[in-house]
Amino acid sequence: MKTPLADRVRPTTIDEVAGQKHLLGQGKILRKIIESGEIPNLIFYGPSGVGKTTVAKIIAARAGKKLCYLNATTASTADIKEIIGEIGTLDAAGGILLYLDEIQYFNKKQQQILLSYIENGDITLIASTTENPYFYVYNAILSRSTVFEFKTLGSTDIAEVLKRAIGILSDEHNKQIIANDDSVNKIARAAAGDVRRALNMLELCIMLTANSDTPELSDDIVEQILAGNSVRYDREGDEHYDIISAYQKSMRGSDPDAAIYYLARLLAAGDLPSACRRLLACANEDVGLAYPQIIPIVKAAVDTAQMLGLPEGRLPLANAVILVATAPKSVSAHDAIGAALADVERGIGGDIPRHLQNKHFDGEDAEVKGQHYLYPHSYPMHYVNQQYLPDNIKNKVYYQFGDNKNEQLFKEYWDKIKK
Fold it and tell me: Phi first, then psi: what are they for 369, rounded to 5°?
């Protein structure tokens, strides 16, 4: 069985690695570490297909250690113990370099098993993860490792890899594969930074024309392949949170173009729940009392989208997203509840005033008997001045009227009534 194209074109030297110049360029720290031959424990963090495994293999080849590979998604505690059992054997006389892929899937106990062997140098660990290691990797391992973040590759870097791969495929088929720059660049852009994905799409394109006398990477074939492979999105990883963060911040920042773009990315990936949830949150948090009618409007749009499903559900959501983005903004309610919760959590407050309590009879120890509650609707304008907060915070102000037209109208009305 032929190995995947990504493995057949995998770089064997640092200079062949695409991108990551901030780590592997001349004079950069990871390059210096690799060239020194003294390899510390390393954690590589970044999205899929950006060179983490490739760099780990280059390091292992230079280190003179026995390379062991584990993927944490399938490896068990028994697999870890089997590697530990090789320590001190002739086969591992130079030490063991363990490449642990997707370390975030190892539980704390599994990571702890490795810890003592990492500490005494019997095992050098190179771990990779698509998740933020500071959230998923055991602190004791983190403190004994150096973390390097791998960045998403640019389309120019990926295009260079694709051109090298086309040369390799031409040699394998004993035919010159014709490929124009536009077609190559389309694949490079559609891969969204993932070299492995770009190579898989390229290989599929070539496969469809390889039997012809003059195989060609044509625009027509590229468009057909890209039609079903253009969305890159991980609902569990950092990219998910980056997109929904940008989505809400664009609505909050009153940029309808950016907001609708990030909505499109969510919907193209089929993530209707996140699109709806953040839209509802933004209507309440960021528009709020500046336009309170927006809350039921957005809720109706979300309900309609969920009833219709995709693709039709994109229309009510697009309407609501643009409405939220272009609406006036106020965080007065957000700030008020935040300040009140902070006081409650600090224990600031006290007994509820007697006239507000839900009891109508006093004990014998009560100095002043009677409820003495003043019913506002019995007074002009449905308002009467009385204390509602506990005694020790009776003058506390949590809500400040926003400077938008809606809240200023309310303020004008209550200033008049309360005087």
Answer: -95, 150
